[in-house]
Amino acid sequence: MKRFKTLTLLLLVVAGNTAAHDAATHGDASAPQARVTENMTRLLADYPGKEILTITVDYPPGAVDPVHRHDAHAIVYVLEGSIVMGVNGQKEQVLKPGDTFYEGPDDIHTVGRNASKTLPARFVVFLLKSQNTPVLTPVN
């Protein structure tokens, strides 16, 4: 229960984080690319070898992510705009500000895109992952 409360508190802190954006990209070459900013990385003393990583993703209008996985527990919290998310062939979900989405370490993120062709979208991702592993791995 203590661990759940700690993770919940961290998620709430992350949800309010609107750090400035640095350029980092991933996505389909034919679509506008997302801009990813790393907000925070923290080692977890209670979970040796694990870390928390938070990123902010800015989707310009029409942005699309490639199919990928995170090899982590990932929680998305939408700050602005609308995004479409889906994993492992499950039904796509349209998320708006305040909505959340979960990806497990075994999930393949098959759908990730801005729902709008004219408005930007922005969201925070909270990842619980193994230390020194990539944020995402493309899946062909």
Q: What integer value in Å does the Rg equal?
A: 14 Å
Order of strands in the sheet with the most strands?
Answer: 1-2-3-10-5-8
| Number of discrete helical segments | 1
Number of domains: 1
Report the mean per-residue pLDDT as an integer: 83
Estimate the global geometry from the Cα principal axes: globular
Assess the beta-strand content as a share of residues: over 45%
Using the coordinates above, name the CATH class: Mainly Beta
Q: What is the terminal separation in angstroms?
A: 38 Å
CATH-level-2 architecture: Sandwich
CATH superfamily: Jelly Rolls
CATH topology: Jelly Rolls
Helix content: 10-25%
Q: Could you name the ranges where pLDDT drops below 50 across 5 or more consecutive residues?
A: 1-28
Alpha-beta classification: mainly beta
